[in-house]
Amino acid sequence: MENISDNFDELIDNLKGSLISNLDKAFKVFIIPHNNMDFDALASSIALSDICQHLGIDNYIVTNDKPKNMKPSFREVYLNLKTKYNFINSEGLDKIKTRDSLFIVTDSCVKNLIPTPNIDSYSDNIIVIDHHKPDNNIINTNNLFISSEACSASEILFYLMKNMDMYITTETAQLLLAGVYLDTKGLFFVNNPSGFRTIAKLLQYGANLQDVQNLFTISNFEDDIKQKELIINLLKFTQFYTDDKSMRFAVTMNNNDPKTVYTNEQLAEACDSLLQYSLDAAFVIGYIDSEKLGEGHSNKISIKARSKISENTVDVAEIMQLFNGGGDTNRAAVSIDCNNIEKISETLKHVIKHNNVVADNNSFIKKNL
Ligand SMILES: [Mn+2]
């Protein structure tokens, strides 16, 4: 194979071996993407369903997502797929699962982000396919196939299908390309030649980049302009810092009206857009709605963290883990139950200024949070 790297080839080989031997024993397969599915979660689930279908095994994609909460273009794709694939919710799963069912989790490796948080008690047969860094909510199984070299679960599934000599339909190739496109922020985060090779191969399988780009077209002009205004107004508060190794950091929080409540998406978008500027890592801090108390209760704070891909890239996952969060090297986050955003901001600034002194930061955070 001419894939991403030797390690990646080995992961695909092992995944194929584990999948085939587990599918051999399973009467039913439950495919589990993370909650609030995106194109990567959906595409990798569809590809897994194609594999099961090809082998003649009963399979279901489990999600509790509601179409009314989906973005219009995603909803359209989802509702269309729903007519061709078996989607069920976690209640449906409870009714039909058996001890010998196989569970395949995709695009996530942690229990708290999937529709079946009790997965460990369901079965000994669990396979996890992901490209995110695990944290302490990691699913308990020996069959963990996590590659941080892959840009998306879709990329892993593409090479798995190729390695299994499976026929890949144009529709599935198109979805997999949408998965890669989403998880690389419109190919912005493709960081190695093999990423581009993957895209080129998907195009050979009939995927169309223009069609994928059209999936991300914004349908509501007024709403989008309002969102952009809100994000620009937040970004105006950005402050820049340089640490002792000359790394440039940006930290943004609304100093004018610190109690402002944002959505996770708004904070994430603000953080993403900071990477266009000359800096190494960016952090955006804001209150988000507490699910427990409903809208407008400012007792939950989220930090979004991003860093540029470079030789001495800042590992923002490591920094977010200090706050009990997580993510990938270049994209990570945490949400903290707290009503003092100034304290969080000061703690974060201390941590990034002393980025290289992990022990010191650990004790500093314990003292402060
Ligand atoms: Mn993904």
Give the gist of this structure:
43% of the residues lie in helices and 17% in strands. With 369 residues, it is of the alpha/beta class. The chain folds into two domains: 210 residues, inorganic pyrophosphatase (n-terminal core) (Alpha-Beta Complex), CATH 3.90.1640; 146 residues, Diaminopimelate Epimerase, Chain A, domain 1, CATH 3.10.310.30.
Describe the protein.
With 369 residues, this protein is of the alpha/beta class. It folds into 2 domains: 6-215, inorganic pyrophosphatase (n-terminal core); 223-368, Diaminopimelate Epimerase, Chain A, domain 1, CATH 3.10.310. Helices cover 43% and strands 17% of the residues. Strands 7, 8, 9, 10, 11, 12 and 13 form a 7-stranded mixed sheet that branches. Strand 9, helix 11 and strand 10 (281-288) form a beta-alpha-beta unit. Helix 1 crosses helix 6. The radius of gyration is 21 Å and the shape is globular. It starts with 5 loop residues before the first helix and ends with a helix. Manganese (II) ion (MN) binds at residues 40, 107, 131, 152-153, 183.
Short key terms for the protein model shown above:
14 helices; alpha/beta; Diaminopimelate Epimerase, Chain A, domain 1; globular; six-stranded parallel beta sheet; binds manganese (II) ion; inorganic pyrophosphatase (n-terminal core); 43% helix; 369 residues
CATH topology of the largest domain: inorganic pyrophosphatase (n-terminal core)
Pick out the low-confidence regions.
none
- CATH class bucket of the largest domain: Alpha Beta
Shape: globular
Helix count, per DSSP?
14
What CATH architecture of the largest domain would you give?
A: Alpha-Beta Complex
Each distinct ligand: manganese (II) ion
Rg over alpha carbons: 21 Å
Distance between the termini: 49 Å
Helix content: 40-55%
Strand content: 15-25%
Class of secondary structure makeup: alpha/beta
Q: Number of folding domains?
A: 2
Overall average pLDDT: 90
- Give the beta-strand count: 13
Order of helices and strands: HEHEHEHEHEEHHHHHEEEHEEHEEHH
